[in-house]
Write a structure and sequence with these properties.
Elements: E1 2-7, E2 10-13, E3 18-26, E4 32-39, E5 46-51, E6 57-59, E7 67-72, E8 77-82, E9 91-100, H1 107-110, E10 118-119, E11 123-128
Parallel strand pairs: 2-11
Antiparallel strand pairs: 1-3, 3-8, 4-5, 4-9, 5-6, 7-8, 9-10, 9-11
Length: 129
């Protein structure tokens, strides 16, 4: 198991940017793929972006071209740069980690929340119109 701590949420105007970071601690963080999901109250958890151990990144169609995910294995962090934010992006963002997995992983696998076994507490992002 690993522990995940998100930071960087907050309030921003439509069209603005925010950067979320997730610091990973515990056993073998570098052997895990990492992902961001988001969840609005009363709604299903939604895939946002993921990065495999290889560094391959995947995005939901709704954020493709606006969000960028990066991974720094020297610091055990993953960062989600969010640009051109709009009010529909207002939700809690959750960092997640898979169990130890193969070097390569597909978007189909990583976009499924059941692939992840460790979750952060969440970071609130609010975009005002």
């Amino acid at each position: 198991q690993v522990q995940l701590l998100e930071s960087g949420g907050g309030l921003v105007q439509a069209g603005g940017s925010l950067r979320l970071s997730c610091t990973v601690s515990g056993r073998t963080p570098r052997d895990r793929a990492m992902a961001w999901f988001r969840q609005a109250p009363g709604r299903e958890r939604e895939f946002v972006a993921a990065v495999a151990r290889s560094g391959d990144t995947y995005y939901a169609d709704s954020v493709q071209g606006r969000f960028s995910l990066s991974r720094d294995n020297t610091k055990n962090t993953v960062s989600l740069q969010m640009n051109s934010l709009n009010p529909d992006d207002t939700v809690v963002y959750l960092c997640a980690a898979t169990p130890r997995i193969a070097y390569y992983a597909s978007k189909t696998y990583l976009s499924d929340q059941n692939a992840c076994c460790s979750w952060g507490q969440g970071a609130q992002v609010t975009v005002s119109s």
